[in-house]
Write a structure and sequence with these properties.
95 residues; single chain
Amino acid sequence: MRRAFTDVYFYQVLIMHKPHRNVQELLHPNHNDLPSQIRHFAAAWMYRPELWQNLGQIQYEFTVKGNKAHYVETFVEYVQRPGRFFATLAEKYTW
């Protein structure tokens, strides 16, 4: 498993937890238009909102995996920034 602070981590989570027939189904509709550092996070945020748009669920998931509290808090902050950005875009545009 990749480090959680990399974009590839979010792609791995999608591959393991979102049903799909082809990995192309896991890409964000605007994949090529997004900055490369957040492409897979954008897809994860869109396709698994029950996790990536719910800070309490993120905290729970990373706590039960045995991560220390300071790591979980840092990761939640890391996820919040692009999440706010996507929420703003989602209000303005339909993907």
